Every structure is written in C-alpha cells, then in structure tokens.
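Colleagues,

For the teaching module next term, I've prepared a clean inverse folding example: a structure given as tokens, and then the sequence designed for it. I'd like students to try predicting residues themselves before seeing the answer, so please don't circulate the second half yet.
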C-alpha cells in the first residue's frame, strides 16, 4: 500500500516491489528470446541503408549503382560476424560476451577495454534507437518532425520505465513488434520485387532527384578515391552488425540448452538481417531512392529547382514503403508505426545489457558497488537510471541527429568486437598447441581462421570510421572509452586499497582490547529538557568519567547557566569553557583534544542534544551548530558522537505523516513507533 502521494505515483509507474524469495529468472524459449534480444540487430536495417546511401551521396549518381553491392558486402559480413559469435557461444556458454572472452584470454587490461567499449555501446544503442524512433514518428506524424529531440527523450523515458518495472510478462509484449517488423520489411521487399519484375517500378518521393556531388568528386571517383568512398559506405552500413553481441551476452536468459538455443537464434537473426538489408538496398537502387544529410544543399528536384527550406527527407524504409504500397497508404503508415515500435524494443536491449554488465563490473570492484544492488523490483535501478541519463544527454547534445550518433555507435561496437575476436584467436591457438593431429584440431584451425577474418573486418571498419569521422564525433566515443577505462582502474585501485586496509591482521590483540577508560562529555547550551535527557543517557552508559561542558560566549549568560545548574543540584559537574572570540565549536574541540592528549588510548563519547522538527523550514532555525560540531568531531580518532534526539511539538503533530513519508518503515512497525 502506498504511504504517500510520491510513493503512489512511483508504484503506478514502476509497480509493487518483488520479494527476494519470490524472484526468479525466467528462461525464455527461442520464439520469445529471438525477438526480444535480437531486436537490436534486426531493427538496424531500419537505418543501415540510410547510412550506405548517405556515405555514397558525396559521389553523386554512383550511389545508384554501387549501393546494392555495398549492401551485399555488409550482408556477407553479417554472416561472418554471426559465425564468429557462434564460436564465442560454444567456447564460453556462460554469456559473458566480449568482456569475458577478452579478460580470460588477453588479461584484465584488455577485458576492461572491452567492457568500456560495451558500456559506451549500450549507451549509444539507447540513444541511436530512440533517435531513429523519433525520425520514424516524424515521418508518420509530420507535425512532430520538428520536435524530434523531445520525441527521442520521451522514448528514452518510456524504455526506462519498462526497464524499472522489470516484469517478465512484458517480454511477450515486446516480442510482438519485432515479428510485425519482420513481416513488414519482408512484405515490402517481396511486393516491391514482384512489382519491378512485372514492369511496374514503384516511384518514391525522391525518385528523379539529382544529388549534387561534393567539389572534387569527379577526381575522387578515380582509383583509390572511388575505393575509399565505397569503403566508407561499407563501414557506415556495417552498423547493421550492431546488436549481434546482445544475443551472445543474453545466454543465461534462454531456455535449456541455453548455448545451443542462443547459437541458433543468432544464426537465424543474422540470416534475416542480411536478407532484409540486401533486399532494401537493392530495392532502393531500383526505385531510385535518394538520401542525403543536407537536402537543401545536396538535392535538385527533377525540374531543376531547389527543394523547399523546410523539406525533411524521410528515411529510406519510409520512402520504400510509401512507394511499394502506393495504392494503400494505410499499409505504409502501419510500416512506419511498426518500425518505430521495434526501435523502442531495440532500445530495451540496452536496458537489459548495460545494468547487467555494470553490476558485474561493480561486483569485481571496477565500478561503484551501488551499481550491483537490485532495486525493489529486482532490477538494477541505479544502472538503468545512469544509462537513461547518459543517453538523454547524448540525444539532446546532438539534437537527435542520427548520422552523427551512428558514427559514435560504430566505434563502440567494433572496438568490443575486435577485442573479443582477438581473445578468441588466442583461445584457439592455445588449444591447438595442446591438441594432437585429429579432426578436432582441424576444426579448431577453421575456427581460428573465422575469428581472424572477423578481427580483420572489425579492424578495417573501425579504422575507416575513425579516420573519416574522427573530427565529426568519433573522437568523443574514443574519449569516453578512455575515461571509462582509466576510471575503472582508479575505482578498482581504491577498493583494493580500502579492502587491504580493513582486512584483519594476524595479531589483532591490541585492537580488540577494550579502552582503558571511557570519558563521557555532554554538550550543554541551556538547562532544559533536552540537556536533562542527554545527562540521563550518559549516566545510563556508566562511563568512567562524566562531565558536562558549556561554552561561555556571553559572560552573563554563562553565570546564569551555572546558577541554574547548581539550583537543580545536577549530579554531574559543569565545566564552562572560555571563548574570548565568541566561538562555539573551537573551545569544545580544544577541550576534547586536551582529553585525548592526556589519555590517547581512552574512548571519548560526546553526547549532543538535537532537535527533531516537523517542518522542513525549521531545520534552518535549529541544529546548525550541532551539525557543524558533529562534522568536526567525526575526524578525531577515538571519539564517538552520540546524538540525543528531542522531538519538538511540531514533530509530534506531524509524526504519522513524517514517518509515512520516510517510506522505509512497515505499517506494523509504524504502529509501535
């Protein structure tokens, strides 16, 4: 039951807490696991063709002839990457992914490098997926197109809330958009192909537009220049490989046999992604779809005129669906909505991956331990909130410009993949050396070749992405990885140092010995009920020495306090400390220091009355000196600060509301407080 309005809103958005003894990790069958964990890779075909055409746009009409071949090359690479990760799953079925492979084969430093790349990759997965989601929402609802940044932020919030709820029942709901997206893309490719083969070539919104090449493009199309342009488009299109590692790290979520089911899911996902990407790029070339970064500067309309100043270029899939289903606009509209939904599901894979990896690193003391703690819904709440905040900063900072975010995305994806493949190469070489000639040894050599090819591909794609887009934003992803890598090293060093410092030593007899004496010091500001209670608490502890201490800020007030103390015949002597500069804290600290100097091994317990108020603004009027004194005493060795609470009437009036607002007290306990 909610105990306050804020708690009621929280429960409405997130749900009721789960008990630890009722929590279990449900294994997902392949029919559910594939669309949930592979949605990132499948949904990348919604923007990979855009990136291919965008990179080829600098060469003008060459995009119309080269793009299908680039798409085919990327499709082949997808299959190679799938084979590489399939070998990873066989060798390491625990689901650690590139982080585990790199750590076990290359050492902790390489493992941390892979972990830093994966953390950046997950943040960019959420940022890119929601940014492209905003683009498709803008294509479906043009009125929202100018507000793509805030649409993307809303998408991040929605995905975050789903992640915080942590309900396994939602997995079945998340699977539906992926299947609908597969059906939509395959139907678009098949219907478009039949129309073209039948002589009825669809006409897209940008069919007939002329792309204005960059200055010097004619010379670039000769020799190495043309090869570089094609290589750059291949690198950009390789973003379709994003998400392959998600299935590899989600092995524990699959039903048994986990490794086999995950491997089959990965192969099926890779085949579908390759087919859809090749089909869409071929269809875009035949239809004549054009996609550029700056339509006003790079496009010329069929009649020779310039495009309108407010013209926004729809994504490639949006243009193709509108062209293929020209007689059924509702179908095209549904394709846009389904694509937008699957991008949200793809964003959810980051919510699945980032907190899990962060918690693993936190348990290994490479990240703050708070990231390893589960929330009341048994999700890694801190990790989810951190991920959503980082992605929102990127989206707002880049104003939801997908091409720039995707360039950052490529760096994170392929750094982790490259380190993982390098680890697998060492893994196979070590096993081959221990294996005598046999069919098994031959298979290991084949596996080594496959992982070597994967490593080379990752190195090429990463190199081209960094060289061509370093100043455009790729440096930011590299810098984030370096900062994370160094930060994790420093955090681990700190935790190691603290653990070493706190570990019990062999001879702890001196530290286990009780203090020779206990000095109790009660801080007195006035003779009133809080002071009397503090005196009673101090006497109940039966210290060796007990004294009350007051500071003579004002001589007349000090005399009056001494007189009242004597009139009450208090059983504890009162020591009045001189304060020539009218300070409160310094005289008490000097007095405690004198006790410590005289008896360094004795324990000093300082009792300080503190008012418990019922209104937030009353804290400004009370307890300021108390808080300052407590902060100073905490740094003194062998000194314990005991706070004696005195609840004012304002607290007693609002007691029930204040206790309920705390939120950490059960109703049964609340009745006895």
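(Answer key — instructors only)
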């Amino acid at each position: 039951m909610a105990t306050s309005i804020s708690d009621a809103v929280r429960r409405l958005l997130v749900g009721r807490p789960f008990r630890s003894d009722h929590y279990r990790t449900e294994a997902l069958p392949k029919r559910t696991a594939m669309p949930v964990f592979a949605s990132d890779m499948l949904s990348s075909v919604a923007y990979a063709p855009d990136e291919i055409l965008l990179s080829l746009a600098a060469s003008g009409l060459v995009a119309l002839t080269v793009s299908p071949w680039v798409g085919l090359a990327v499709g082949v690479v997808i299959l190679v990457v799938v084979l590489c990760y399939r070998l990873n799953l066989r060798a390491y079925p625990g689901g650690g992914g590139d982080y585990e492979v790199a750590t076990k084969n290359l050492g902790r430093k390489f493992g941390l490098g892979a972990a830093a790349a994966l953390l950046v990759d997950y943040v960019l997965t959420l940022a890119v997926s929601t940014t492209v989601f905003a683009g498709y929402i803008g294509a479906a609802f043009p009125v929202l197109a100018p507000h793509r940044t805030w649409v993307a932020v809303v998408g991040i919030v929605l995905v975050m809330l789903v992640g915080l709820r942590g309900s396994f029942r939602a997995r079945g709901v998340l699977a539906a958009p992926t299947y609908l997206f597969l059906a939509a893309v395959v139907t678009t490719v098949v219907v478009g192909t039949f129309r073209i083969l039948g002589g009825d070539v669809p006409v897209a919104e940008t069919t007939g537009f002329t792309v204005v090449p960059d200055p010097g493009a004619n010379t670039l199309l000769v020799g190495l220049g043309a090869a570089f342009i094609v290589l750059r488009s291949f690198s950009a299109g390789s973003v379709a490989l994003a998400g392959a590692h998600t299935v590899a790290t989600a092995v524990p979520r699959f039903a048994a046999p986990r490794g086999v089911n995950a491997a089959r899911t990965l192969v099926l996902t890779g085949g579908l992604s390759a087919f859809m990407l090749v089909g869409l790029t071929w269809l875009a070339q035949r239809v004549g779809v054009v996609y550029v970064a700056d339509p006003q500067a790079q496009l010329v309309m069929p009649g020779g005129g310039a495009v309108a100043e407010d013209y926004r270029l729809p994504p490639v899939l949006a243009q193709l669906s509108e062209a293929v289903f020209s007689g059924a606009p509702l179908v095209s509209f549904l394709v846009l909505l389904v694509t937008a939904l699957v991008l949200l599901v793809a964003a959810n894979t980051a919510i699945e991956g980032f907190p899990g990896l962060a918690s693993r690193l936190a348990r290994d003391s490479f990240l703050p331990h708070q990231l390893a703690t589960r929330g009341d819904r048994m999700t890694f709440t801190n990790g989810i909130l951190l991920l959503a905040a980082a992605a929102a900063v990127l989206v707002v900072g880049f104003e939801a410009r997908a091409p720039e975010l995707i360039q950052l995305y490529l760096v994170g994806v392929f750094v982790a993949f490259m380190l993982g493949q390098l680890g697998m190469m060492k893994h196979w070489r070590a096993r081959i050396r221990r294996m005598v000639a046999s069919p098994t040894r031959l298979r290991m050599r084949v596996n080594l070749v496959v992982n070597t090819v994967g490593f080379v591909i990752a190195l090429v794609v990463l190199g081209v992405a960094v060289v061509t887009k370093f100043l455009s934003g790729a440096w930011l992803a590299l810098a984030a990885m370096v900062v994370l890598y160094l930060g994790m090293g420093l955090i681990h060093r700190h935790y190691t140092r603290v653990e070493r410092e706190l570990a019990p030593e062999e001879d702890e007899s001196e530290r286990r010995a009780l203090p020779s004496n206990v000095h109790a010091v009660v801080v007195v500001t006035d003779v009133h009920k809080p002071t009397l209670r503090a005196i009673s608490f101090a006497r109940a502890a039966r210290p060796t020495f007990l004294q009350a201490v007051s500071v003579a800020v004002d001589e007349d007030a000090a005399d009056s306090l001494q007189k009242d103390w004597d009139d009450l015949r208090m059983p504890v002597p009162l020591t009045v400390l001189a304060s020539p500069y009218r300070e409160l804290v310094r005289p008490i600290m000097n007095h405690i220091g004198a006790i410590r100097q005289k008896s360094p091994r004795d324990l000093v317990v300082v009792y300080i009355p503190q008012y418990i108020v019922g209104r937030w603004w009353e804290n400004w009027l009370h307890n300021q000196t108390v808080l300052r004194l407590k902060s100073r005493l905490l740094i003194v060795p062998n000194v314990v600060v005991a706070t004696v609470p005195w609840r004012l009437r304002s607290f007693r009036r609002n007691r029930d509301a204040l206790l309920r607002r705390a939120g950490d007290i059960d109703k049964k306990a609340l009745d006895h407080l």
